[in-house]
Amino acid sequence: MLTGIIATTDHPRTRASLSGDLAALGLAAGQLVMLHVSMRSLGFVVGGAMTLLDAMLDVLGPTGTLIMPAHSGDLSDPAGWSAPPVPAAWLDEVRATMPAFDPARTPTWGLGVVPELFRTWPGVRRSGHPTVSLAANGPLAAEIVGTHPLDDPHGEASPLARAYDRGVKLLLLGVGWNRATLLHLAERRAYPDAEPIAAWAPVLLEGRRVWQTYRDYESEPERFADIGDALAGQVTLGKVGSARAILADGRTAVDMGVRVLG
């Protein structure tokens, strides 16, 4: 894999070069930014994910705040798993032995190397939702991720809504709009009367591990591309390393999402 990345990279990406690319795109000190990234899309980065995070935090500075998803969707009822499905004979044992969510120790799942490194970064705070937590670093971190309701985790009491209120910027590096977690808030606002669905996760309740049920809502992230299309001309496009970069105003994206989805 590394051989292919080196072969298609015109020069090494460094902390300084990535910082320059991010600043040229429009990132600046003091901003609140939610990042989604494919590390491979950047080309060969000297130092990998650590270098990218250093570059992001260099540009945002001590007054800026960086947010990333820290989802752990594998902490869920195995009866609903499909890639691959769990044999029916295993279900009771899997449920009985699955560890409870621990914000400090539970790894991210399916998000790639950058969010997994970021959740362990010095000073990062992680919200307490067992499946769709967010991680944040910076002066707004406690405000954004300090509380995260179990029910309706993308709704008006969620970290996403607080990030919206604070004027978050949305940064996509080498990934599509379907990865934009912030747009789940648009779904909730577009469909406020949607029927909830039941979900389960193992959590600690008064020091005891329990399977906790909570209310969530169906999502269609494949429709987020329509939101991106509708935002044409209202986002900044560029390159960070080799990656196609999209920088959007989070409020504009969510408001457009409500109109498109509604």
Task: List strands and helices in order, with pairings.
Blueprint: H1 2-7, H2 15-25, E1 32-37, H3 48-60, E2 65-69, H4 91-97, H5 113-119, E3 125-126, E4 134-137, H6 141-145, H7 159-165, E5 169-173, H8 183-190, E6 197-205, E7 208-216, H9 224-230, E8 236-240, E9 243-249, H10 250-261
Tell me what the structure shows:
There is one protein chain. This protein is α+β, with helices and mostly antiparallel strands and 262 residues long. The protein has one domain (2-261). 32% of the residues lie in helices and 20% in strands. It contains 10 helices and 9 strands. The protein has helices at residues 2-7, 15-25, 48-60, 91-97, 113-119, 141-145, 159-165, 183-190, 224-230, 250-261, and strands at residues 32-37, 65-69, 125-126, 134-137, 169-173, 197-205, 208-216, 236-240, 243-249. Strands 3-4-2-1-5-9-8 form a 7-stranded mixed sheet. Strand 3 and strand 4 (134-137) form a beta hairpin. Helix 2 (15-25) crosses helix 3 (48-60), helix 3 (48-60) crosses helix 5 (113-119) and helix 8 packs parallel to helix 10 (250-261). The protein is globular, with a radius of gyration of 19 Å. The model has no long low-confidence stretch (mean pLDDT 96).
